[in-house]
Amino acid sequence: MSNDETTPGPRASRRSDKPRKRHRGLKITLGVLLVLLLATGGTLYWLYSQLDGNIKGVDINKALGEDRPEKLPTSGQNLLVLGSDSRAGAENEELGGGGAVSGARSDTAMVVHIPEGRSKAVAVSVPRDTLVTRPECVKDDGSTVAGKERVMFNSVYAQVGPACVVKTVEKMSGVRVDHYLEIDFAGFKDLVDAIGGVTVDVPQDIDDKASGLHLTAGPQKLDGTQSLAYVRTRHGIGDGSDLGRIGLQQQFLMALLSEVKSQDLLGSPANSYKIAKSATKSLTTDSSLASLASLAEFARSMNGVDPASMETIMLPVAYDKVDPNRVIAAEPQAGRLWKAIREDATIPEDAKKSPATGG
């Protein structure tokens, strides 16, 4: 995640990440935790209510209407997961660079596809510098924003809002987005600290003076501040572009999910509450998931997905011929990738190859 406008440069090889071995299975689902909270009543019920009130909801279905792609022909699900660089609040302002950039942008975007059976998943990262056609959208105040061609993908969030990001993704992919989840910088940092840090295998020495991140290659346990700098760094690795750091973001996401899943929630109710508080206070979802009970039910349905087996792909892109500092979806690769997701089918290997790799 980065809040600057640095653009892609010369090509460099991308490093592959090593899946982190899961040491322990999930001891208790969030749904069971909720049952325990409700059963004890009194103070714990108040804590549950507080967590429930933390979650913000966006009515995506109302905002987008009926002009949307068809739902998957199976029980598979598609989620749009955004990492937002909102400057709202003192903590976000400090993390985002002292308020140097106004507003907010969708700094990290992943379309997560969970096929029928829900035993595996694939995450497709959409580079923030991708030029897309933004469709006509309606803002929260009811005003209409005309569609526009060749806009940077991450600008859609700032200019029109999350519902328009969903609409843009659906128009460019033909994939129906079933759910929307967004977490901001401060929430990301606090969640990592709440679970006691995340261990990642740093692919190479990182010396990023812009973020203050200095790491040596090899396994490193990162706290919240370091983790935030790690997924946002673009000057400390590769060619300094957004494409170069997508591998780091995907690697870190898998490590984070594995760490959360290995937490012994039953053995430490206090820590469980701390994690849940950190996860919910900066979380925005679509309205159908905007309650602790709904999130618990969804999490329970995802219990069979092992983060270690989740596949991560960058949307195949090529450098734009008019502006080589931007990228566009590469065809026919991107079309084949989205088609496989629309049909809940296996993604062809040739649909995963990107002409522009980040260096």
Report what the structure shows.
With about 350 residues, the protein is an alpha+beta fold. It is about 35% helix and about 20% strand. The chain has twelve helices and 17 strands. The strands form six sheets. A seven-stranded mixed sheet has the order 1-14-9-2-3-4-15, with helices on both faces. Strands 5-8 form a two-stranded antiparallel ribbon. Strands 6-7 form a two-stranded antiparallel ribbon. Residues about 1-45 and about 85-100 have low confidence and may be disordered.
Largest sheet: 7 strands, mixed
- Point out poorly predicted stretches: 1-43, 87-102
Class by alpha and beta content:
alpha+beta
Order of helices and strands: HHEHEHEEEEEEHHEHEEEEHHHEHEEEH
Order of adjacent strands in the largest pleated sheet: 1-14-9-2-3-4-15
| Rg computed from alpha carbons, rounded to a whole number of angstroms | 20 Å
Shape: globular
Mean pLDDT: 78
> What share of residues are in beta strands?
15-25%
Q: In percent, how helical is the residue content?
A: 25-40%
Strand tally is: 17
User: DSSP helix count?
Assistant: 12
Give the distance, in angstroms, between the N- and C-terminal Cα atoms. 17 Å
